[in-house]
Design brief:
Layout: H1 44-58, H2 76-79, H3 81-92, E1 99-106, H4 108-111, H5 115-127, E2 133-135, E3 149-153, E4 158-161, E5 178-182, E6 188-193, E7 207-214, E8 220-225, E9 228-234, E10 241-245, E11 259-263, E12 269-277, E13 282-289, H6 303-313, E14 317-321, H7 334-351, E15 356-360, E16 367-368, E17 374-375, H8 378-394, E18 397-399, H9 401-405, H10 410-416, H11 429-448
Parallel strand pairs: 1-13, 1-14, 14-15, 15-18
Antiparallel strand pairs: 2-12, 3-6, 4-5, 5-12, 6-11, 7-10, 7-12, 8-9, 8-11, 16-17
Length: about 450
Amino acid sequence: MFTLACGAKSPAEPTASATTPPATLEDAPVATPPPPAPAPVVTPASEAAHTLAQTRTFGQPLPVDPLVHFVPITDAASALSKFHAALRRLAEGSDPDGKVRVAIYGSSSVAVDRYPGYLRGYLQQRFGDGGIGFVAAAPLWRWHRHNEVVLQASKGWTIEHVQKKNLREGGHLGLIGAAQSASRKRVTTTIAGGAPESFTRYGDTDRVDLHYLAHPKGGKFVLELGDRKLGTFDTRASTARPIVHTPKLPSGDAPLPPLRVRVVGDGEVRLLGATLERDTPGVVVDTLGIGGTRAANMLAWDEPSWSEALAARAPDLFVLAYGANECMDLDEPIETYRANLVRVLERFAAAAPQASCLLVGPVDFPEKDEAGAWIPRARLDEIIAAQREIAKDRGCGYFDTRAVMGGVGAMDTWVVAQLAKADHLHMTKLGYLQFGRVLVDALMRDYDGPPAPSIAAGP
C-alpha cells in the first residue's frame, strides 16, 4: 500500500514520465532476451561427412572463421521436403532407382565445382556414392575445372552457349546449356580421372551416357575407351535432335580407362556432355554452371530438348545460384528480371515436378565509386528482394549468401581474410569450401531434426 501526497493525481489518472520509477519491483519491465542465433544440427553422421569432405578438399579440417556465419534456408521444412524424403528412402534402401540426384545450375561460382563438390562429397559419404554425375565433354573455357574429372581437348573445338552470343537457331544445348562442336579431322577430347582430392573415383564408373546432337550437317566420330575402340557414330540426321548413347563398358574390377571422342572430319560433331554413374546406390550431384551467365539465359535454350534431358536425370533437388551478374544489367528493369525468373522456375516445375527447389542468392557484390572506394550496389538489394519473394511464391527455399558473409559490406573483410578475390565477386578456394560447409548444414538442418533439448542435471 502507498499514500498519495497532497495535490497528487489518483492512480486512475497516471502521468507518463520516462523518469518515473516502477511502483514496485514486480512492475519493473523484464528485458526480453534476444532469440538464440540459428545453429546447424550436429550428428555423428554429419561430423563424419564433414571430416571427409574437408580432408579431401583442404587436407585438414576447415578453420573456424568468425567471418563465416551459419544461415538457415528460408521455408526449408516445406521447400526441401521432397529432397529429404528421397534421402530417407535412400537411407532405408527403398528408393526405386537407388539414386538421389541434385542438379546445381549457376554462373562461375558453380562452374568451378568447389562448393558443389563439397556437397557431393558430404552427401556421398552419408548416403552412398552414386557416381560423378554430369560433366561437359570438352572444356567450356580455359579455366574450366571439375572436382572429379579432368577434361583434355585438342585445338579445334568451338564452344557455344547463350552468354557468348553465338547461339545458333534452335538452341539445342543439352542439360547444361552449352555445346562443344568440331569438324576437323583428328580433333579430340578426353574425359579422364581427376585430382587426388576427388571424392568419387572416375575409374569406379559403371555407366557412361554420352550426349550429342544429331543434325543435318552432322559428321562422324569415333568413341574410344583407353586403347579400345567402342564404335563409330554418325551424327547426320534430317532434323536436329539430341541423342544419348550408352556404350557397353568392359566388365571386371579394372579401373575405367579415359573416354575419348575423335572427330572423323566429314561434318560437324556437336557434343552436349556426358553422365558418369555407379551401379551402387547413392547420391549424384550434377554441376551445371557456366561462367558469366544469368538465369534468364535458360529461356533461349530449346525447351523440349532441355526438359527431356532434365526429366531423364530426375533430380530430387534443383538449385539455382544466380544474381551477381544480373546486378550489372542496369538497362534491364527489375520487373523484367522478376518475370524472367518466374518463367525459368515454371520450366523447372514442369520438367521436374518431383524435385525440391532452392534459390541461392548472390554474394555481397559492391561497386567502385568515382574515388575508387567499394560501396554497396543498389541493384543487389533489388535482386535479393525479388529472389526472396519469388522463392516463397513458388514454394522454393532461399539461402542468403550475403548473410553468410556477414551482410552489406562484408565482401571487403572477406577479401582481406583471403576468403574472396580482389575482384570483390568471386570467392577463393577456401571461401568456397567454407560456403559449401554452411550450405550443407543448412540443407540438412531439417533432415537431421531440431537440436536435442538439454537436460538439467539432478540434485
